[in-house]
Specification:
Blueprint lengths: L1 H34 L3 E5 L5 E3 L2 E3 L4 E2 L3 E4 L6 E4 L4 E5 L4 E6 L3 E8 L2 E5 L4 E5 L18 H56 L13
Length: 212
């Protein structure tokens, strides 16, 4: 009887150990996944893009090291929670790497920008891994500052021209007013002279009033 029970007890013990190990392993995996940094993909009009070669749409999870390719018809954004976000222009191929201290985007084609929270470093690198200091093909609206500058110059020039026109009009109005005053004064003087002349017409022969 004892010889039949011992193998059963040993088997039960082994199964218990296996179950405990599986639970610990699963629990550790769940904890690690919970603590892992994850990004969330947002695409233009929910159009699909390629993430590591497969199609992905808004709401897809982005892991550090993922390669993203956007089509010509749409851009994409990777939201990184408290770290910041990555904007990817159309027709771009980028690799996104991030951890709790930094967000780095390597651009193989196209363009991308990084916005990070305080205390988090952000960098955009070219295909060779060098920092990008210039933007050869800026996303739509990238030249808005230049456009606003041109518009400001145009508005300023128009305002200056209008000021000159208004000044000329004011001067002309002033000249017209002075001319009208002078004409009125001349007319008043002539009328006064006429009255004086007519007042002297009390004797004969009558004089012709031509002094005014």
């Amino acid at each position: 009887m004892r010889s039949n029970l011992r193998p059963a007890k040993v088997l039960s013990a082994l199964m218990l150990v296996a179950v405990v190990n599986v639970f610990v392993f699963a629990n550790g995996t769940m904890t690690a996944s919970k603590n892992a940094l994850l990004g969330k993909l947002v695409t233009t009009s929910n159009r699909p893009i390629l993430v590591n070669g497969g199609e992905a749409v808004t709401g897809s999870v982005i892991l550090s090291g993922a390669q993203l390719a956007t089509p010509a018809a749409g851009s994409a954004m990777v939201q990184l929670g408290d770290l910041g976000l990555v904007n990817i222009a159309p027709s771009s191929l980028v690799t996104v790497n991030f951890d709790s201290t930094a967000v780095t985007v390597r651009v193989a084609a196209g363009d991308a920008t990084v916005t990070t929270a305080a205390g988090v470093k952000g960098a955009v690198l070219d295909a060779a891994g060098n920092p990008r200091t210039a933007n050869p093909s800026a996303p739509a609206g990238g030249s808005s500052a230049k456009n606003w500058g041109i518009a400001g110059v145009a508005v300023g020039s128009a305002a200056f021209i209008w000021a000159i026109i208004s000044w000329n009009r004011a001067n002309n109005a002033e000249d017209d007013a002075k001319a009208a005053q002078a004409s009125a004064a001349t007319l008043a003087a002539q009328l006064a002279a006429l009255r004086t002349c007519l007042a002297g017409q009390t004797t004969s022969p009558i004089k012709l009033c031509t002094s005014f």
